[in-house]
Amino acid sequence: MKKLKLILILIVGLSFEIQAQELDVNLQIRPRFEYRNGYKQPLQYGQEGTSQISQRSRLGINYKQEDLIVKLSLQNTRTWGDVPTTTTSDKNGVAVFEAWAQYNFTEKWSARMGRQVLSYDNQRILGGLDWAQQGQSHDALIVSFHNETQKLDFGGAYNSDAENLVQTAYTVPNMYKTMQYAWYHNQFNENLGASFLALNTGYEYTRNPNTPESKILVDYKQTFGPYVTYKKGKLDTSFWVYGQTGKSNDHQVSAWNAAANLGYNITEAFKLDLGYEFLSGKSSNDGSTVIKSFNPLFGTNHGFNGYMDYFYVGNYTNSYGLQDAFIKLNYNVNKWQFALIPHMFLTAADVVNVPLNEKMDSYLGTEIDATFGYNFKKNITVTGGYSQMFGSKTMEFVKGGDTSHTNNWAWLMISVDPKIFSWKK
Question: Which of 38, 150, 216, 348 has its CA 20 to 30 A from that of 24?
Answer without folding.
Answer: 150
